[in-house]
From TrEMBL:
Domain named VWFD: residues: 24-203
Record carries keyword Glycosyltransferase: no
Pfam families: VWD
Presence of the UniProt keyword Disulfide bond in the record: yes
Name of the protein: IgGFc-binding protein-like
Gene behind this protein: LOC102807541
InterPro entries per record: Mucin_vWF_Thrombospondin_sf, VWF_type-D
Keywords for the protein's UniProt record, in alphabetical order: Disulfide bond, Glycoprotein
Length: 203
């Protein structure tokens, strides 16, 4: 499991100078052991759809990423273990939904535009989705067979303005368990449950 800050540098050519930026990396593994953007690890065995992270800077979020957890085969009645099976990335009216090996993209308003805000890159092992909002680029790496998801953030406009299972990204791990109502809780299960997407039915 990886979490924390990473320095990412792109060679910008001619003068061999590099453009470096600090990115936050966080991991949601197949078996939902999650690490918030601020590095707080917790285990949450919920099932169904939950908000992983979204824009909380306004009441009309610019983006939202939700994931579906489903029970694993080794679950028992007393102890449900779950894994990540689908991811829904929505930016404005564009969406990309990863379901196992398939990626479906589209627009909720049905319009077709050439410039898509969500970039999708696929190879036989990974699906990489990225989108940019204000100065910030969010990149999700989905490892197909392992059902593992890694999220990286580069930019600062949303620092402290995110919410969801991955916390607020303000640099302080202790206040990461914030419910949709704004309460800071201490119990991982209560926190996790609070981010369940209520209107979404799941099998
Ligand atoms: C994906 O998420 C967006 C925003 O949360 C939601 O409006 C949309 O209905 C979701 N799509 C599906 C297929 O659940």
């Amino acid at each position: 499991m990886v979490s924390g800050l990473m320095l990412k540098c792109d060679d910008v050519g001619a003068q061999h100078s590099s453009l470096c930026e600090i990115i936050t990396v966080t991991v949601v593994s197949g078996d939902p052991h999650l690490t918030t953007f601020d590095g707080r690890p917790f285990s949450f065995q919920g099932i169904c759809w939950h908000t992983l992270f979204k824009d909380c800077s306004s009441s009309n979020p610019a983006f939202e990423v939700t994931t579906e957890f489903e029970p694993r085969e080794d679950s028992t009645f007393e102890h449900v273990r779950s894994r990540t099976v689908s991811v829904n990335v929505t930016v404005g009216s564009d969406f990309a939904i990863i379901n196992g090996l398939d990626v479906v993209t589209g627009r909720t308003d049905g319009h077709v535009t050439a410039a898509r805000p969500i970039h999708v890159l696929e190879d036989d092992k990974t699906v990489t989705l990225s989108f940019t909002s204000k100065d910030t680029t969010f990149t999700l790496y989905w490892t197909l067979k392992k059902h593992s998801l890694r999220v990286s953030i580069s930019g600062s406009d949303y620092r402290g303005h995110l919410c969801g299972l991955l916390g607020n990204d303000d640099g302080e791990p202790l206040n990461d368990f914030i419910t949709p109502g704004g309460a800071v809780v201490h119990d991982a299960a209560e926190f996790g449950k609070s981010w369940r997407v209520e209107w979404k039915k799941c099998e």
